[in-house]
Amino acid sequence: MAMMIIVFGILLLTLSVTGYMVYQLRQQPRVLVSRKDTIRLVGSGILAFISDTLGMGSFAVNIALAKILGTFSDEELPAMNNGAQLIPGAIESLFFMQFVEVDLTTLVVLVLGTCIGGLLGGGIVARMGKQTVRLAMMICFTFIICLLASNQLGLLPVGGTAIALYSWKLVMGFFGVMLCGALTSVGIGLFAMVQAVLFVLGVSPLVAFPIMMTAGAMQQPLTTFMFLRHARNMPIKRILWVSFGGCVGVALTLPVFQYLTVSWLHGLLVLILCFNLIAISRTYLQNRLQLPTAAEA
User: Fold this and answer.
1) Taking the CB of residue 7, how many other CB atoms lie within 10 A of it?
2) How many whole angstroms separate alpha carbon 194 and alpha carbon 269?
3) Nearest in space to 283 (alpha carbons), one of 133, 63, 159
4) d(CA 180, CA 143)
5) What tens digit of pLDDT does each residue of 137-165 get?
6) Distance of alpha carbon 52 from alpha carbon 55, whole angstroms
């Protein structure tokens, strides 16, 4: 019954906001998108959501491709990332809830924790300096990478194949993913953090997927709705082309999951965390080097 309520909620939110997007599109002046731009937008969506379905997220890929191809301005990127995620994200969530076995209580508690963290994060994290957050994440990612590497080498028995959390582990998981949800407000990717928290608690990496996807599928429609209400000249037509490509990317990638192993996913998680660590460290060092220059000026 609870699972049906979750599925109904995802479908209701997704279809309602998608319908509102189409309504808003009809209210906008007609915009022509060239065939070349359409190919770029659809191709971007395919690549971004292949990455998203594999648990690496779509935001970073979308932003990188938008800058390379010139499909969106910097001001349009937040609305594009959220709007394009709407339909593909719902498909991912519905698939992983059916394909991957996960305890219902664990799913509901951790999704709730992620959503609460996302809501509270804006106020709490805003009081912290971005450099402080980046430094903390660098330390966390380095620690988790060491745990993963130790497990792969057989030096430390962390990780596992559990599909549920109980007692203190469920409480720790709730607060862990709540922190993950809060940190998304400063641009830290949710997927790698949730996978890492569950890995440390001994949960199978596969179980992270329905939790991540469901949390995103519940949040994205609400975020997109706010953009539609308040953003001026939101490029809805181009966003829908990216979303269409995203649906194709998801459809191409989902069949791969039946061939994945826990060991392969652990290795993939190492790569994801290393990518995040490099990206955050680079931003941290760039900002630190700019501070003395600004002070001298």
Assistant:
1) 17
2) 11
3) 133
4) 16
5) 788 778 777 877 776 676 655 566 788 88
6) 5
Among candidate residues 75, 9, 18, the one with its CA nearest the CA of residue 228: 18
Whether the Cβ atoms of residue 102 and residue 211 lie closer than 8 Å to each other = yes
d(C-alpha 30, C-alpha 14), whole Å? 24
Distance, in Å, from the CA atom of 31 to the CA atom of 191, rounded to the nearest integer, reads 34
Residue type at 222 in one-letter notation: L
Q: Are 156 and 147 in contact (CB under 8 A)?
A: yes
d(CA 35, CA 58): 23
pLDDT tier at 186, thresholds 50, 70, 90: low
pTM of the model: 0.74
Identify the three-state secondary structure at position 57: coil
d(CA 284, CA 280): 6
Q: Is 202 left (phi over 0), alpha (psi -120 to 50) or beta?
A: left
Helical packing angle, 205-230 and 262-296, nearest 10°: 50
Asked if residue 162 lies in contact with residue 202, where contact means CB atoms within 8 angstroms, the answer is: yes
Q: Is-contact 138 277, C-beta < 8 A? A: yes
Single-letter code of the amino acid located at 35: R
- How many CB atoms within 10 Å of residue 255? 8
Query: Of 226, 296, 276, which Cα lies nearest the Cα of 60?
Result: 276
Which DSSP letter does residue 101 get?
-
Name the pLDDT band for 133 (thresholds 50, 70, 90).
Answer: confident
The single-letter code of the amino acid at 251 is: A
Tokens linked to 180 = 């993950």
Compute the Cα dihedral for 277, 259, 42, 88 and give only its sign.
negative
What's the rounded Cα separation, in Å, for the pair 293 and 271? 34
